[in-house]
Design a protein that fits this description.
single chain; mainly alpha; transmembrane helix
Length: 94
């Protein structure tokens, strides 16, 4: 698996890429609502994943000249689940 740093710092790609993130966001929030309404056990981790996916979608929907803001939103979209995983590891190891 290769990491393409130049894609991370590229300009926003538009609707074609954002569509996947929007569908993912809707799926995560639908899962949360289902488990919260049916079982009363909705997990905030699913909300964090949905927010992360939504942030990535916003980054891709920005105008082409908003490259720096798109990079910032991409970093935030990666940081949200990373912090969630680090928090889970901290709880596990404590």
């Amino acid at each position: 698996m290769e990491i393409h740093v130049n894609r991370f710092f590229s300009e926003p790609k538009g609707w074609d890429t954002a569509r996947t993130f929007i569908i993912g966001t809707a799926a995560f929030f639908a899962l949360y609502l289902y488990f919260e309404l049916v079982y009363g056990t909705g997990s905030y981790d699913i909300v964090i994943l949905g927010a992360s996916s939504g942030t990535a979608a916003i980054a891709e929907l920005l105008p082409k000249n908003q490259r720096k803001l798109a990079v910032g939103l991409r970093v935030a979209a990666i940081a949200m689940p990373a912090i969630m995983i680090l928090n889970a590891l901290w709880i596990l190891l404590s």
